[in-house]
Specification:
The protein has seven helices and no strands. By secondary structure, it is mainly alpha-helical. It has one domain. Helix 6 crosses helix 7.
């Protein structure tokens, strides 16, 4: 989101409400609990289908929303749609996706649920989020160095 978009108070309220709603959904579905995610990934052991039901529920909501959004000239809270134009599958994308998957499989957290789980005050969640932020910062530094 650009800083110009965030200056609009309506957009800020909608963004805040969306984040709260997303966090509530993560809490309600127990996706802030890494054991749920790890249980879903344990297909050879005590498989937990909860994440599959959450994904199906998300698809049931987003599929019609995308269908109707494609008919809009512009989004409700912005001047234009911001759709990525890069369609290249390169080394950086594949390595990033692999790193994300390995991390998700090892600890059961991805960024959204981890940020929402900060409210629990658990040390392992804080450690994960700090490590995630450090990794993002390191990537940014390396990317700036590469571009220079």
């Amino acid at each position: 989101m650009t800083s110009q978009v965030l200056r609009n108070p309506v957009t800020s309220v909608v963004a805040l409400a969306s984040g709260i709603f997303f966090g509530f959904g993560l809490s309600l579905s127990e996706m802030m609990n890494p054991r749920r995610v790890l249980g879903f990934l344990d297909v050879a052991g005590a498989w937990d289908p909860t994440l599959a039901f959450v994904m199906i529920g998300a698809l049931l909501v987003t599929a019609p929303a995308f269908f109707f959004a494609r008919r809009l000239e512009r989004p409700v809270c912005d001047s234009s749609f911001r759709i990525p134009t890069n369609r290249v599958i390169d080394r950086q994308l594949v390595l990033g996706a692999a790193l994300f998957g390995v991390g998700w499989g090892l600890v059961g957290f991805c960024p959204g649920p981890a940020l929402a789980a900060l409210i629990t005050g658990r040390g392992d969640v804080l450690l994960f989020v700090l490590s995630m932020l450090a990794g993002m910062g390191l990537f940014r530094l390396l990317e700036l160095r590469r571009q220079a």
